[in-house]
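INTERNAL AUDIT FORM
Audit reference: QA-55
Scope: verify that the stored structure record matches its stored sequence.
Auditor: D.O.
Record contents follow.
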Amino acid sequence: MELPDWSLIRSFLAVAEAGSLSAAARATGISQPTLGRHIQAIETALEVTLFTRTAHGQAMTAAAQALLPSARAMQAAAAELALSARGQASGINGTVRITASRVVSHHVLPPVLARLRATEPGIQIELVPSDTTENLLFGEADIALRMYRPTQPDLVARQIGALPLGLYAARSYLDRRGRPISPDALMAHDFIGQDRMDQIIRVMRMLGLDVSRSFFPVRCDDPLTYVELVRAGCGVGGILRAIGDPDPVLERIDLIPDLPSLPVWLTAAPRLRQSPRLRRVWDALAAAFPA
């Protein structure tokens, strides 16, 4: 029996974890037909059936369930090999892959990375805007910027600052509705909330404002769209001050004290901290955020 190569095993894992060819294609960037051919190839090589088609996607067979632990062990070993090799790189020139939330990637990081490229032209940057948790130990990114303390024990993590929040509304909205002069007057305005998420409700309740989902006439979970809804004049919304303060369309409303700040954690796999290239990028990111 000829053992399948790693690329086929990787496609098997992608489909097993995503539950369908289409979802695996979106997650990996590999086309759906290619993934289908990979699954057929591994089934032929191993002489087993790995998936059965259902109304909801691809269901793993008992054979696939039995192979899954070994495939994941291969994935971990491949990631360990890649990390060891990259951690030994002694030169400055090369690529660094950074992941951060979509809001931070869109609004905060571009000028930081532009300054880095001006001082380190030999370093190429791959920026992955993502609100999911990339696995640094599996090589999905070299450095991550996260708004919470990482819990994985094998990572190097450092809190490099905090991003304060503010309440904002479009100047056009305030011209139309009036500028509130007290917290009670502010609460009579339209607020933009979240649809299925509840972070805004929890923060407002923490501040003593007993609100529910129906309090918000406009609701959206996507953070980039949320900022645009505030800018368009749909109502008052909480935005990072690093985004709202320099925006000429927006006006900050300072009527609710003690708004929280979001902690900024810089995270990397331990071996990558030994790479001069990674260290340069790490230091540049750490210096860019307020303490």
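Auditor finding: record pair retrieved intact. The first strand starts at residue 51 and ends at 54.
Action required: none
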